[in-house]
Structure formats: C-alpha cells, structure tokens
Design a protein that fits this description.
Blueprint lengths: L4 E10 L2 E9 L3 E6 L5 E5 L3 E9 L2 E8 L4 E7 L4 H12 L3 E3 L11 E5 L2 E6 L2 E7 L3 E6 L3 E6 L11 E5 L10 H12 L11 E10 L2 E7 L3 E5 L4 E5 L3 E8 L5 E14 L2 E11 L3 E5 L4 H8 L6 E5 H13 L3 E2 L13 E5 L2 E7 L3 E5 L4 E4 L3 E8 L6 E8 L4 E8 L3 H10 L32 H29 L5 H17 L7 H17 L23 H16 L5 H14 L2 H71 L16 H14 L8 H8 L1
Parallel strand pairs: 5-8, 19-24
Antiparallel strand pairs: 1-2, 1-7, 2-3, 3-4, 5-6, 6-7, 9-10, 10-11, 12-13, 13-14, 15-16, 15-21, 16-17, 17-18, 19-20, 20-21, 22-23, 25-26, 25-31, 26-27, 27-28, 29-30, 30-31
Amino acid sequence: MADTLEFNEIYQEVKGSMNDGRLRLSRQGVIFKNSKTGKVDNIQASELAEGVWRRVALGHGLKLLTKNGHVYKYDGFRESEFDKLSDFFKAHYCLELVEKDLCVKGWNWGTVRFGGQLLSFDIGEQPVFEIPLSNVSQCTTGKNEVTLEFHQNDDAEVSLMEVRFYVPPTQEDGVDPVEAFAQNVLSKADVIQATGDAICIFRELQCLTPRGRYDIRIYPTFLHLHGKTFDYKIPYTTVLRLFLLPHKDQRQMFFVISLDPPIKQGQTRYHFLILLFSKDEDISLTLNMNEEEVEKRFEGRLTKNMSGSLYEMVSRVMKALVNRKITVPGNFQGHSGAQCITCSYKASSGLLYPLERGFIYVHKPPVHIRFDEISFVNFARGTTTTRSFDFEIETKQGTQYTFSSIEREEYGKLFDFVNAKKLNIKNRGLKEGMKQSYDEYADSDEDQHDAYLERMKEEGKIREENANDSSDGSGEETDESFNPGEEDDDVAEEFDSNASASSSSGDGDSDRDDKKPAKKAKIIKDRKPRKKQPESKKGKDPNAPKRPMSAYMLWLNASREKIKSDHPGISITDLSKKAGELWKAMSKEKKEEWDRKAEDARRDYEKAMKEYSVGNKADSHRGERSKKKKKKQEKQVKGKGDKKGATSKSSSSKSPAKGMSDSFKSKEFVSSDESSSAESKKEDSEDEGAASLPPSSEDSGSGSD
C-alpha cells in the first residue's frame, strides 16, 4: 500500500463556506492547504480520534475528530474512493472509517449532544445538523429558549445569523436545563469578552487601514483597537501573517497584519491591518504581569520591562502572542538601494516589496501574492512613456495584477529577482530548469536561500544591456513611422476644398470658380492608384506536388503506432518527446537508412515539380492569348458605340433649329406640360446608350439674356 494519498479539488468546510485546496494523507498525519490563502492545517496521526464517511451535497465527505475536541470536514470525494481511504485509515492510523448518513426526515425536535467543540442535533441515532461551537459569537437565554448568534463569513454567499432552541422544562429540582445548555455552549464558544486588565496598551498609533489613530490594547487571546469612531476586537486565531517592511525613505516602518476572516466596517472588509511607525519613536514598556507569569507564558521571548523603538516593541509583542514569525524583505535591492519598488496599482501609488516567497504591495489596496499561486509574470512597456514599464502578475485562478509606472532603472534588478525565484516569465516563455520547485503543502512563509542567485545576477546584467539596446531601437522606429502633418494633413486639406466646392455648387455666380478645385480633387483620385498596391497572397495550388518529408518525419510516421503500443495512453506531446529521445539514441547506421529514403523522396519531388512547372507555363500561355482576344473584342464594341453616339449628337443639335421660327425657348426652360414627356425621353436616350452633352454655362448665360 502507498504511504501517501493525495486528492485535488477538495473542499474544507469553514464557518459555512467551502474553501478549495489540496489534501494529503501520510503516515505522519493529514495536511490540507488552502488554495486561496495558503493556510496549512496539519493534523498529527496521534491526535486522530474518529473518522466518519458520509454523503454530502458535493458528493461524499470525510469528517475527522481529534482527541482535543476539534472537528475537520472535507468534501468533494467520489464514492469509489471509500475503500482506498478505509484501508489507509486501518493500516496507518489504526482507525475504522465509519459510514454514517445524515437524517433527512425534516423533523424539528430531537436531542442535543455536546461532544468536544461540536453541538449535534440528533433524531434517534442519526445527526440532522452539527454546529461548531467555535463559530458562536453570542449566546443568550430566555424563559425556555436559548439563542445562538454566529460570526459572519464574507466568503459565504448565504450566512447563518442565529439559531433558537426551545428547551422544555424538566421535573428535576435544582437544575435549570436552559442555563445548563447555555453553559455548555459558552464553555466552547468563541465569545470575545474583555475580562481582566490588558497585558499592555499602545497609545495613539497611526493606522493606514482602517485609517485613523487607534489605541491598541493587548489581551491574552485578542487585541482591541479602540478609536474615536470604531472599535475592533481581533482574535489572534484570525491572524495569518505578520510583515515588518521598511519604507523607501528609510525613516518609517510598516507593520502589516494579515487577517482571515477580515475585520468589517459597514460593507467594507479589511484583510490587512497596516500600522505606520517612525523609526525615531522610542517607548518604555511594562507588562501587566509578574515576572514569573511572563517567564512561564512567553518562555524568554518577552520580559516584564522592555524599551526600544516603538515598532520593535509592537512587533515583538505581537510575535510572542500570535506565535507566528515576522516576514521581512529578503536580499532584493532596487536601483536606489531600497528593498522596495515605487509603482502604481489601480488608481493609487504605493510600494511593491519582493519577499523570499511572494510579493506584497502597500498600501491602498494592500495585496499579498505568494509565489506558489503565481502562474506567470510579464514585463510590459508602459502605456504613456518609454521611461517606465509595467509588471503584470497572473495567478493560477486567473486573477491579474498590474503594477504600473515602474522606473526603467528597476527593470534589471526585478528581472534578476524573478529569474532567481524560477517564476515563469511570459515574455520569454517557460524554459528548461525554470519550473517551480515549491512544495505544494509547505507553508508559504518559510525562508529559503536560493543558491543560484549570484549566477542569475551575472546573466541578468547581460540581458539588461541587450534589453535596453533593443528597446531604444524599437522606440526610434515607432517615432519615425509616425509623422503628423505631412501626407495625412495634405490629403485632409484637399478633401476640405472638395467639400467646400460641393457645398457651394448650387450658387450660379461661383460655378466657374468651383471648377478648379473639382479638377484638383479629380487629380488626387487619379494619384491614389499610382501607389504600389500590395500583391494579394496567392493561394496554394492543390495540384502542386507535396514537399518531401525529412528522415526524422519518415521514421516517425513508420514508428508512431509502435510507440503508442509500447506506451498505452500516452499524450501527443509526450509521444513527441519520446520519439525525439528514441531518434537521438538511434545508431548512425539506422539513421543513414532513413536518410537514403528521404533523399529518394526529394528526387521524386524535384522530378514531379519540373513536370508541374512545364504544365503551368503552357496554361499561362493559353491564358495570355485568351486575354488579348478579349481585349480586341472590347475595343471593337467600343468603336461602334462611339459612332452611334456621334450620330445621335448631330441629330439632337439639328432639332432646336427646326423650332426656332415658331418661338425661341432656352434649353433650361421646361413647361409643366412637357416635364413628363422630357423625363420619358431622357430615360429612353439613356437606355439606348446615346451620350447627350449638357448645356455649357456660356450657352445658359446667353439664353437667359
């Protein structure tokens, strides 16, 4: 039997929402890594007390109970995986995986059982629903009623607000069932109550998100932010990570607390608590505990009396209480020597910190991106100027982050850093040796030294010089290709004059003046075809002989079926890789055999190509003869049409002379009686193809006189 089992696309139920991730079962225990936050849950094998297999909405689920009362639920399994999991639990955890279905009768009365951190409502022996008591934020009692209120989860589309239990009165004296129920809930519930004095208090700290100045009161299990308008209580269990980041001006420090679930202010959610300190601020701190309690609780990490910089004291106290290490910038240094890069994200400017295992941007909005969730990064040219560039990050979930307006001098340093961390760079593509080497179940805060960093820096300097040269050259080309005010402006002016001519053509006095611009516009139209038109791409002749294949392709076509039979189920890409390896390992004698076949195929192709070209020449000669004949016929038809037009012209010129003795009328004059007949005559003349000339402006002028 295998020592480990791995499952992808498994969902962990946490406070009413389903968080997807990866689950691995090994001899040491169970590990689940959240794909969204990177948080790792590790359950030791010795802590497991019970395993339950049951049918749920997403297929089948696994519920694990530990000896200290914690419950873990994982959904998304297939029914066929039960036997594999059951055998694994028996072999490595010495546990029987029990099948237990939920009751779906729909009854609303039953028995409440308290087991560890879980409240179970049962009908008979089957559970109807279960409530983790750590989700309870408040418990209130009535006459025969107990009301439970819950912490809200922002990731869940629908949240459970409260549940009310009716507790019937009993005949037992001295025991109130309602109070007993409430005490059982409160003993395990996550109800924040500021009982006792605070361990220490930090006054008037500047907070960037949420903005304002807050007093921070440190309690044993939570910290209390007290401001003029809002108060926040943050349990230490919701703190994911701590960051201590130096500002670019070297005079201030950021202290960032990552929270999940976030704190809420109306409809706004704050996933990060960001404090800003001045390095010059000092403080003397005295903990509200005696020395024995401090030594016993913190084991030398804190002392009763401490003094130093304010940011050092806050970070030191938080590290001891939250029991998480503080992440600081690694060995990255920008062009100016700072450990961050000035850039813009969305609408605001901020600082991007490359860390040992991720990137963090402060401060509005704060963004933390781990390396193990990055699909690729991209270096893009700035949209407004060539003096800056954009740094784009796309995650495996498809989310894209664009950090813009980064100074060009930072390019080399940032490229070296990304290269050393073996991230996929989109511009260059994924090369061999650049695959990510992260443990998919490792915590994203572990610091690891990269042994290739120095070598990558040397290579990066060479690439930086090449990149600068190429970018300068491309910038000059684009600048030269765009010359406003030369050709386009001339064309626009000519079209403007043409437009004015057409608009004023209705005025009788300006007919002669408008003719000149019209001729100019006509010349422009004739000029355009003079420009060399790009030749249309010729389509491939289907009758043309096919090009001969290389020796490798001939061998691959002959060996493809054999490779498939030797490796059943192999994909196309893997088949190509395997074929390349086999061809590379083939002896010289065997390759020469396929080289001879390729040479024979090439000779056959050349012979067929000669025959094909001879046939094409004969076809082209026949085509040229037919074209010449067609042109000759068109000229003859055109000559007949010109003669016919001349006769019609002479007849039309004689017709006005005949009616001159009766009454003289100008050619523009048309009576109402003759309008319809004139139009019909005009249509008839157009159908016959006769070319009648319009009266000139001189004739019309003399006629009007």
